[in-house]
Amino acid sequence: MAKCDICGKGVHFGNNVSHSHRRSNRVWKSNVQHVACKVNGSTKRMHVCSSCLRSNKVERA
Predict the structure, then answer these.
(1) Closest residue by Cα to residue 53 from 19, 16, 7
(2) Above 80 in pLDDT, residue 1?
(3) Rounded Cα gap, residues 41 and 19, in angstroms
(4) Domain ranges of the chain
């Protein structure tokens, strides 16, 4: 799974906890998109999370 090139957000790990309190591994995947962005006037394809896209931290090409 890719990480955001802007903020570094990636996969988070934890546990599923059942009703009997047995634990198994669990993964939360962040919403990372592969988009074309403007960087220093040129276009570059980057991995960017949806929160960075919404907050206008990158300019889409």
Answers:
(1) 7
(2) no
(3) 54
(4) 12-54
